[in-house]
Every structure is written in structure tokens, then in C-alpha cells.
DNA sequence: GGTTGTGAATAAATTCACAGCA
DNA sequence: TGCTGTGAATTTATTCACAACC
């Protein structure tokens, strides 16, 4: 091609890889910070560092959006903020409901970042009648009975579930039946939804378990010795050559969870080396 | 089964793909539920359904752990619970500290799932002197000044950061310097850490933005109450599957060619209030 | 000079499909 | 017969490296 002078995804139809989509918010955040500091342009290298990825990946990601940079110069910060916002659908308003106003639901309701960018908490819903009317984050909690009406009246298409696990699937079904097509699930359970509905989950204990897995191997060789030992022989030094200073930084909930975590040479272990590496079984 | 010495994966010691590791907690949760119902064995198909993945993936994942199933029968639930727990390092105790006891930090402190499986909240830490001594989740909040001592005394290697974004990097550095090698970051910022330290992040607004992206391309515009939204030249594109959701196989490469007319030339700064993203207030 | 954008190469993850065993 | 375990095929993601352009 090499045509277009216009900034426009020439032949680039919308086929943005999921991994790229998951990183766009990261770039957007970094760009917003630059914008607030009135930085006019930024190179892929600088922006990548700020977002915690490498520059090749960033450029490739941006290439799916179109040609928004200028060779030899970099990217115009404001323009890119706008383009990414638009791509993510943040130029429109997304009313959201939070169902389950317990500790977590209340905390999220108060979370500033919520409303920061295109999202607006349209309603807080809880099944407990005693909660009804109570103000949380300056907003009266509404009862579950009104869920359908609330969804409809506000044109809500995104729901956040912060109920106990046992109630999540049922709440999910009601949300979907009422018209919600995207769900962010904080309840530790797998939701099953009809096709066309997106679910993303945020799960504290899963994240901790993943960390524990890696942590376990930093604690020196010898895990799993109780039962079958087998010549370690491992130890193939991974390549890694991440020249970029900062180490890992890992990925989002699902989709792309990179966690570089190459166990390169870790005989170092933390200062506190007490935890028994080998469990008694 | 496999009497005698359980033959280990042999050449398969350390090489569990990251994607597999990220799913092990999911399998474990499903297995635990089965265990509680005293179900003795389960097939890959059943377990996969319960965990929200497909059976081929599940079997492949398990193959990295070893041969723990029985052909023609399935997997022994209890045995698999144990093997996965061990693999994830959950047979040992992981003391964890939570830094930043605002709304979110307090909510997490109270979160039951925390202690459920190998993890134990060793301390709650906050920078606000007014918080010191106050009980949260039945535990007195301690002051940031004591962070290093707390980490050391308790042999903490996993830290959870729930501070405002602005404080996160500094807290992170102190945690790492004190010996923490795994961090779960809830603050909306990229943490940079030395090699050997794992960071996983949980970020509400990123998740919402990803959902918004997909939402935007479902059914054109959808129920947005829309204000003076600029026409995003909606193009179709198959929704792709994401995370846990079951459906999502509809690939359908977007055909079309034409060029999306992004007529966006309006004012970019929509009606957004530009609220600074801060954590719980 | 400097930096983007992108084909080509590589790596990682997923899915297929079936041999092999209980 | 039924279901696991896994090589092979496929798809998706990342990285390389350099031509194109400012």
C-alpha cells in the first residue's frame, strides 16, 4: 500500500489481536500521564518503557490501529490518546452497575478510577433489604428486585459482580437476561454465559496462587523431592536477554499474562531463607 | 495408581507453560468443589466444563504435571487436588502483607478466600498514623515505619499493594528491599522491579476498558444513552473469545475490505471530567 | 541522524486426532 | 468400551531486523 496520506487504517480492517487489546489501556494510561505533563510527542521506546513493555511490541500493537506515528519523530501524545480512546470505545459513556455491595463492592464503588474514563456507576445493587437506601459512595443502594428495571432504564450493558460466589451465577443470568452483555466478575466462580456475552474475571486467590507457584521455585531447587526425585538436569539457562532494565511486570488477568519470570539464576533467594523448600509431605 | 515409584514426567520437570500455570488454580477450585461433594473421580470432560475450559486443553495442561489420570476412568479427585496444590506450592504456608489499608485494602483483608488456601495475612500496613492500631479484619493496622521489620520477622515473601498509585512504586521498593519477591499490585501503575521479582497486577479500569472495546463492536452502538458521541464508524468484527466465557468460537475473519471512514474530527476531549485516578479514598 | 511500520522468523499456546491402555 | 496422554497441526503472540521516511 504505501498510499494514504491520511491517518487511517488503510487496509487495516479491525482485526486487533486480543493481546494487543489488553495492552491498549496500559498505553493509554502512560499517554495520559504524558499528556498531563504536556509532553507533545513520545517515541516508541519511551512510551514502551513507561508502559512496561518493549518497543517492538508496542509498535506492532500500534500498527494494528493504523499509522499514527511519524518516522524520525515519534507519536503525537494527544492524537494517540484520542485514537486509543476511540478504539477502546471510551469516547462514549458506559453506565455500569455493581451488584453485591459488601466490602469489595463498596470499595469498588468508591474507587475513583472507575469514573475516570468513560465509565459511570449507574447503580449499586444488593440483595440485602437492610442495605436498600443506604448511601455508599454517595449513592443509595438499590434492591435486587429492581435489577431489571435499573438495567433497562439506564441502558446498562456492563455489569460488575461482587457478590459471594454462590450468588454470582444467578445474578449473572439476571443481568444477561436484562440486557447486559459484558460482565466483570470478582466472585471466585466460573460463570457460564450465552454466546455473545463477554466475561472477564478478577480473582485474588488465583493471582496469589500463580505468585506462589513462581515463589516456590525461587526457593531453591528441590521442590517435590518427597516423592520422586529425578535428576534435576534442568538448568538450561533461558535466554532472556531482556536488555531493558526493569524486570518483569506482568500481565493482566487473563488473556496475556506474561510474567517473564525466567528463573535465570536464582540461588539468591531472599534474605529470609527460612521457608522449608521441601515439604514434609 | 501407578504403583511403585510414581514415574514423574521425566523430561518434563520444570517447564510448565505460563498459560498452564495460570489455569491450575482454576482446576484446583473445581476439584476442591468436587472433593467437597465426595466425588471420587472425574473425567477431563467433566472437569473441563466445571473449570470453563475445553478438555483437550485440560489434558494437555495436566500432561505437563505428569500422568495423574487413568485411561478409561478419569482422574482421582483427591490425588489431583494434592498434586496441583503441591505444584502450586500451596502445601506450605505463605505469609502475606497488605500495604495500603484504604477501602480496597480493608476489603481484601476481610476477604475470606485469602486465608482459604495456604495464604495467611501476616500484617496490614498503612502509612497513615491515624490508622495505626485500628483493627481491620480483627487485626491491628501497623505503621509503614515497621514495614521492614514485619517482613523480616514474618518471613514474608509475598506482598499485596493497595496504596494509591502515587505511593506504589516506593512501597514496592521497600518491600523488595526487605525481601519480598512476589508482588500483587492493585494500584493502577506500572511497577518496575529488579529481576527475580514477580509482579502481577489487578486493575479494574483496564478490565473495564477491555470489556468496553468488545462491547463497542457488538451490535453497532447499543444502548448507549449517548450524548454527543462521535460516530465511531462501527465496523463489525467477530467478537472473539476471551477469558472464561464459554462461547466464543465464532471466529469469522472479518472480510470486508473497504476502509472504515473514521470521520472523527470532532473535539476529542469529550465530556469527560478527567478525574485523577486514585485509589480508594 | 532518528524512529516508525512491518514482513519474516521465532516462540508460545491451542486444538486436533488418535494410539495406547485400563 | 472409554478416556487419557501426546505428537502433529494450527493458530496466536512475540521478537527480529531493516527498508522507508522524516
UniProtKB/TrEMBL annotation, chains A, B:
SMART domains: CoA_binding. InterPro entries: CoA-bd, NAD(P)-bd_dom_sf, Rex_actinobacterial-type, Rex_DNA-bd_C_dom, Tscrpt_rep_Rex, WH-like_DNA-bd_sf, WH_DNA-bd_sf. Residues 223-281 are annotated as: Disordered. Residues 223-264 have a biased composition (Low complexity). Belongs to the transcriptional regulatory Rex family. Modulates transcription in response to changes in cellular NADH/NAD(+) redox state. This is Redox-sensing transcriptional repressor Rex. It comes from Streptomyces corynorhini.
Amino acid at each position: 500500500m504505501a498510499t494514504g496520506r491520511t491517518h487511517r487504517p488503510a487496509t487495516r480492517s479491525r482485526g486487533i489481536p486480543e493481546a494487543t487489546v489488553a495492552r491498549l489501556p496500559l498505553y493509554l494510561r502512560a499517554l495520559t500521564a504524558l499528556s498531563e505533563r504536556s509532553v507533545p510527542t513520545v517515541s516508541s521506546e519511551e512510551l514502551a518503557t513507561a508502559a512496561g513493555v518493549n518497543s517492538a511490541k508496542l509498535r506492532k500493537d500500534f500498527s494494528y490501529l493504523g499509522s499514527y506515528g511519524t518516522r524520525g519523530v515519534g507519536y503525537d501524545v494527544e492524537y494517540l490518546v484520542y485514537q486509543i480512546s476511540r478504539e477502546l470505545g471510551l469516547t462514549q459513556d458506559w453506565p455500569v452497575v455493581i451488584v453485591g455491595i459488601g466490602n469489595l463492592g463498596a470499595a469498588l464503588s468508591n474507587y475513583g478510577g472507575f469514573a475516570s474514563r468513560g465509565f459511570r456507576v449507574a447503580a449499586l445493587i444488593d440483595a440485602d433489604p437492610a442495605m436498600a437506601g443506604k448511601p455508599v459512595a454517595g449513592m443509595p443502594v438499590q434492591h435486587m428486585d429492581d435489577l431489571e428495571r435499573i438495567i433497562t432504564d439506564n441502558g446498562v450493558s456492563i455489569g460488575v459482580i461482587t457478590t459471594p460466589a454462590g450468588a454470582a451465577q444467578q445474578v449473572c443470568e439476571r443481568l444477561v437476561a436484562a440486557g447486559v452483555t459484558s460482565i466483570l466478575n470478582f466472585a471466585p466462580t466460573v460463570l457460564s454465559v450465552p454466546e455473545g456475552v463477554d466475561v472477564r474475571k478478577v480473582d485474588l486467590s488465583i493471582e496469589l496462587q500463580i505468585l506462589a507457584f513462581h515463589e516456590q521455585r525461587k526457593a531453591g531447587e528441590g521442590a517435590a523431592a518427597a516423592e520422586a526425585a529425578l535428576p534435576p538436569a534442568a538448568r538450561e539457562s533461558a535466554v532472556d536477554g531482556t536488555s531493558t532494565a526493569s524486570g518483569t511486570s506482568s500481565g493482566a488477568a487473563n488473556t496475556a499474562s506474561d510474567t517473564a519470570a525466567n528463573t535465570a539464576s536464582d540461588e539468591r533467594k531472599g534474605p529470609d531463607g527460612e521457608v522449608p523448600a521441601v515439604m514434609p509431605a
